[in-house]
Amino acid sequence: MSDINQLRTIREEILHCQKCPLAKGRKNAVPGEGPSSVDVMFIGEGPGYHENQQGKPFVGQAGMFLDELLASADLKREEVFITNVVKCRPPDNRDPMPEELAACAHYLDEQIALLDPKVIVTLGRFSMAKFIENGKITQIHGKSHQVGKRLVVTMYHPAAALHQPALRPALIEDFSKLRHLLAKEEPIEPKVEAPAPETKPGKQEENPSLPEQLSLF
Ligand code: SF4
Domain for residue 2, yes or no? Predict the structure, then answer.
């Protein structure tokens, strides 16, 4: 099966998944969206109200702010993949529970393995914790970390800046650094080695027909 078909299969599995209690309260699961081949992948926490309604990631106020931040990094939404660590909305936007994170983790692991991005940008504590053990977002926001063959850049979640406006300048500055990093103009400092391994399910042979624009929503 090609990578794009595997991504579509994962999407279908997520849409019908019943592996954790979050399935009961959802209107729509939110698998993620973006092309089937990307250099940069953004990983947030979980769907909120609007995402649950529409089945798309980052479509509410936080999504509008993310679009602004992407533009400041010279990125368009259509050229990055955006998803979350849990694909169904936690009730009342509470934090995902450990068992929910564990049940959902393999979907994200498979998406990362198939998309094979050079850079992963984590948005918020929960996606950061997937890659950076014992990291503190207040200390490492805006910094890059070598995790295996990928660069992981840890950022605040855009929604955090909506609730705490004091974080907004930090997010804007961190995305400005991301633009430099992606343009290879200058490194984001400091760059640290992080040991956290990624689960990498078997990646299929390269498909010369890729990248194909994949509608995952
Ligand atoms: S959050 Fe993940 S594991 Fe839980 S029901 Fe949704 S897709 Fe399945």
Answer: no
Residue 70's pLDDT is 97
Q: How many whole angstroms from 209 Cα to the centroid of ligand 1? A: 31
Residue 116, domain CATH = 3.40.470.10
Query: Can you give the pLDDT at residue 199?
Result: 41
Strand order in the sheet with 143-147: 81-84, 40-44, 119-123, 150-155, 143-147, 191-193
Q: What is the pLDDT of residue 191?
A: 56
**Domain-located, residue 22:** no
Centre of ligand 1 to C-alpha 81, Å, is: 19
For a ligand 1 pocket test, name from 11, 85, 86 the mutation site with the most ligand atoms within 8 angstroms of its C-beta: 86
Residue 37 C-alpha from the chain's centroid: 14
Asked if the structure places residue 13 within a domain, the reply is no
Domain membership of residue 151 (yes or no) is yes
pTM (two decimals)? 0.87
Domain range for 68: 39-193
Taking 50 as the pLDDT cut, the residues of the chain under it are: 185, 195-217
Whole-number Å distance between alpha carbons of 22 and 8: 21
